Amino acid sequence: MTRALARGVRLDVGHGTASLSFAVAKRAISLGILPHTISSDIYCRNRINGPVHSLANVMSKFLAIGMSLPQVIACVTANAADSLSLKTKGRLQPGLGC
């Protein structure tokens, strides 16, 4: 994993219905391996019946397993925009459009 990260591989959490392991995520975070972006992979079934429900719910899970609020917010805003080369999106700064 560290070699992949050194090569520029970016990590996204696409929560999905059955693709998130709390044990693996917690261990990775404890080792300093953080996701670059957090997404929900939401669709009708995992939104209504869980386990995703909403992006806010997924964000709360990452707060609960050890990421800080600024880290989680960056993963769904600035880091996500940067991953798509949208340097003027995903941030609140004077002079940037909305």
From TrEMBL:
- What superkingdom heads the lineage? Bacteria
Annotated GO MF terms:
deacetylase activity
Q: Which InterPro entries match?
A: Deacetylase_Atu3266-like, Metal_Hydrolase
Coiled-coil stretches: none
Q: What is this protein called?
A: Dihydroorotase
Tell me the organism: Salmonella enterica I
